[in-house]
Amino acid sequence: MLTIGRKAISAGSCSKAVSVPKLATPVSRNVSCKVATGPKPSMASFKSPNQSQKSVSIDMRDEGSGLFTSVDPESRRVSPVDVKGRVRVKMVYVVLESQYQSALSAAVKGINEKNNKVCFEIVGYLLEELRDADNLAAFKKDLENANVFIGSLIFIEEDRLDACLIFPSMPAVMQLNKLGTFSMSQLGQSKSIIGDFIKSARKNNDNFEEGLLKLACTLPKVLKYLPSDKAKDARNFVNSLQYWLGGNTENLENMLITIAQEYVPALQGADMEIAEPVLFPEVGIWHPMAPNMYEDLKEYMNWYDTRKDMSFAKDAPVVGLVMQRSHLVTGDEGHYSAVVAELEAKGAKKFFYDPMGTGKTYVNAVVSLTGFALVGGPARQDAPKAVEALTNLNVPYMCSLPLVFQTTEEWMASELGVHPVQVALQVALPELDGAIDPIMFSGRDSNTGKSHALPDRIASMAMRAINWAKLRNKPNAEKKLAVTVFSFPPDKGNVGTAAYLNVFGSILKVLKNLQKQGYNVGSLPINDKGLIDSIVNNGDSKFNSADLNIAYKMNMDEYQDLCPYTEALEENWGKPPGQLNTNGQDLLVYGKQYGNVFIGVQPTFGYEGDPMRLLFSRSASPHHGFAAYYTYLEKIFKADAVLHFGTHGSLEFMPGKQVGMSGVCYPDALIGNIPNIYYYAANNPSEATIAKRRSYANTISYLTPPAENAGLYKGLKELKELIASYQGMRESGRAVQIVATIVSTARQCNLDKDVNLPADDEAAMNLTHDERDMVVGQCNLDKDLNLPADDEAAMNLVHECDLVVGQVYSKLMEIESRLLPCGLHIIGESPTAMEAIATLVNIGELDRPDQVPLPIKGLPGILARSIGRDIEHIYKGKNKGMLAEVELLQQITESCRLMVTEFVNDNTGLDGRIGNNFMTKFAKFTGMYQDPIQRALKGTYFGTADRDDLGNTFKYLEFCLTQIVKDNELGALVEGLDGKYVLPGPGGDPIRNPSVLPTGKNIHALDPQSIPTQAALKSATLVVDRLLDREKSQNGGKYPETIALVLWGTDNIKTYGESLAQVLMMVGIMPVADALGRVNKLQVIPIAELGRPRIDVVVSCSGVFRDLFVNQMLLLDRAVKMAAELDEPDEVNYVRKHAKEQAAEMGLTNIRDAACRVFSNSSGSYSTNVSLAVENSSWTDESQLQEMYVKRKSFAFNSDRPGAGGEERRDIFETAMKTVEVTFQNLDSSEISLTDVSHYFDSDPTKLVSSLRSDGKVPSAYIADTTTANGQVRTLGETVRLDARTKLLNPKWYEGMMGSGYEGVREIQKRLTNTMGWSATSGMVDNWVYDEANSTFIDDADMAKRLMDANPNSFRKLVATFLEANGRGYWEANEEQIEKLKQLYMDVEDKIEGIE
Question: Residues 558, 561, 565, 566: is their CA dihedral positive or negative?
Answer without folding.
Answer: positive
